[in-house]
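Target protein
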Amino acid sequence: MGELHGMEMEDALDTVESYGHKGSKAKKIAQELVSMCNESVVTEAIKVEYKRDAKKVVTQYKKIFYKLLPDLGAMSTASILGCVKYICQEALGDANFHREAEPTAKKIKGKIEALEIKMPGLGGHFVKIGSTTIKSILDKHYSDIANAAGWSGIGIAEGTALFLEELKQEQMGQDVLDAFNAIYAANESVVNEAKFVKDFDKGVLDAEYKADITAYYPSAKFFMGKMTHFFGELEPNLYFKAYYAKYYKQDTGNKIDGEFKITSIYSEKGRNYVNLYVESANTVEAPNVNEAEIKTEEDFKEYAYGVLKKAFGEEFDQAKADEVVDGILSKADGDYGKAAGILQSSLA
């Protein structure tokens, strides 16, 4: 962002108006843009380890608040922080950092307040949009934050911390980063003690109620869910993802009688998640991950395209697949076992 340092108000206003924003709203967004450009480069009090991922996350936050959803970017500071809090928690959960998600996001002191939108087509009357509706809008974007971080929990946390710093909430950003690191370290020691789980009781795949799951795994835990799906832990280091009946039918066309359907089961190996089972339209078998067979970049590409084609079926897009594979290879730095783990984690 160094090339934007020193941006004047006039230039910022031209930039904002080029996106179609006018009047007082354009001026408010432009003022925020000037503040961010002129202060964030100088004030880098928050130190991050994974700068590339963190900067991508910051860029995505800006895209959400100042380009895609500018009405949210023009809300009060408390409401913007509330939105960041919600996105951060959901993005961490989406990246499978369930234990870290809630306590990390709690460090962000904000609350989403109702937003009033003036409707020119209704005689200038205002329509109030509540926090529940705003969260449903944000539900379409938190995966973009997780993806920008390469599905890395620390990338999400560091990027969120830097964005908070740009919102003049430096201490809050540092608190977010400290909370994530502390919880991750504690969880990592637990995971290191819990061995990688290679198999599971296939009977649990028929579960459609929580009682069905606990019949197979009495100590199963159920994590906070989202509108469409939720996660859980069957036993130490053995996790699952399940879609609620309504959304399962929307995604697959298949109807179930119960409350939900398990669509993936996975276990953590090192710092990556490996799928043991992924449901698709054509098969109920898990992709067979044999890291020993992936020894070259071409081996990984062949493997990755096969996994992506199976996962997305008719929606498979070669150009997007190329982008995903190239991004993973750049992160893995020649470690193809790690690359396979990143791919599996992104699909869990």
About this structure: The beta strands are 115-119, 125-129, 221-222, 229-235, 238-244, 260-269, 272-278. Residues 43-191 form one domain.
